[in-house]
Amino acid sequence: MDNRRLIIDSAKKLFWHRGYSTTSPKQVMADAGVGQGSFYHHFPAKADLGHEVVQENGRDLVASVRAAMEGKATGRDRLVAFLGSAGDALGGCQIGGFAYDAGILAEPPLREALGAAFTELTDLLESVVREAQADGSVSAKLDPAQTAAALLAVVEGAFVIARATGRQSTADAATAGALALLDG
Amino acid sequence: MDNRRLIIDSAKKLFWHRGYSTTSPKQVMADAGVGQGSFYHHFPAKADLGHEVVQENGRDLVASVRAAMEGKATGRDRLVAFLGSAGDALGGCQIGGFAYDAGILAEPPLREALGAAFTELTDLLESVVREAQADGSVSAKLDPAQTAAALLAVVEGAFVIARATGRQSTADAATAGALALLDG
DNA sequence: GTCTATATGATGATAGAC
DNA sequence: GTCTATCATCATATAGAC
């Protein structure tokens, strides 16, 4: 119905799994089933679509992390739920791959949107670490900001390693190791 | 033989910092200071150069990790030295970015070389975790393979986060947090 | 808003002379 | 081994009709 929405949804999926620079407008049009005229009417330049996609994928990721944490009894359980984000790592992180995409980094608005998404995720995790320390499920000795950063890095790294090796089990090993350290 | 080396060295640097798919043969030629005739004489296709680069960057990374660990008194100190690999994260990991590059993943030989490099790093780290447990500098309760995978993931993730936010300090926070967990 | 036709430059090469 | 010329294809649009 709404071609603009069809374009964005296709681009979100394609930029996520195949990369921004390595996906052409033509591929997006084909996937969305819209013509060139429609595409360039809604997005004068590819970067305009990219900006929208980085923002939406960032929001989606934060929302899915919040959803995965919902209903968990302790702060530690919520952190465990976050580590589960790497449970299907072969497709790559919704936004992590953009950090290595020269086409994203070359465009200041896209770069800023990417940084903002990571900052929001870090802040969310830090607040959950504090909750976990408050309810006694995680050691009070840990620095909340650094612990949150480490957990986010483990998950992002797990995506990288899984894609590099082609084996999901390498991501699972990383998150299991991180959990053991957290509980240690 | 000299131009071949110049081409490889330029490509190693450019593919590392700017990505494989987003760097053209022409850019490599310009950086290396060689002409098209020379380039295609040594590397019939871009992927042939890419294969060489993935292998060399993998070997270089393993070698630099080994060098950083050398002379450290305990296994834990060697792991700390490895965490320091993310001390200059804004340029990206020598091989980590390839995991999100569609042009690398689409070529089986490049993909295999990438996976092999990660496997070698993981194996190296696992052996160091075992040494650390043997000398008492790291808890014997930890699973060596999972702990090694987690530490590698932290470092790879630190590169991703630093590039996404544009701030080295976000990588430093992640590795500091990981060290605290390891010592915890 | 969408269509088709057209334009410009880059990419990843190949051909043949030196 | 290296050079210059050439080439097909693709990426990224723009123009104007409907």
UniProtKB/TrEMBL annotation, chains A, B:
<dbReference type="InterPro" id="IPR009057">
    <property type="entry name" value="Homeodomain-like_sf"/>
</dbReference>
<dbReference type="InterPro" id="IPR036271">
    <property type="entry name" value="Tet_transcr_reg_TetR-rel_C_sf"/>
</dbReference>
<feature type="DNA-binding region" description="H-T-H motif">
    <location>
        <begin position="24"/>
        <end position="43"/>
    </location>
</feature>
<dbReference type="InterPro" id="IPR001647">
    <property type="entry name" value="HTH_TetR"/>
</dbReference>
<keyword id="KW-0238">DNA-binding</keyword>
<dbReference type="Pfam" id="PF00440">
    <property type="entry name" value="TetR_N"/>
</dbReference>
<dbReference type="Pfam" id="PF16925">
    <property type="entry name" value="TetR_C_13"/>
</dbReference>
<protein>
    <submittedName>
        <fullName>TetR/AcrR family transcriptional regulator</fullName>
    </submittedName>
</protein>
<keyword id="KW-0804">Transcription</keyword>
<feature type="domain" description="HTH tetR-type">
    <location>
        <begin position="1"/>
        <end position="61"/>
    </location>
</feature>
<keyword id="KW-0805">Transcription regulation</keyword>
<dbReference type="InterPro" id="IPR011075">
    <property type="entry name" value="TetR_C"/>
</dbReference>
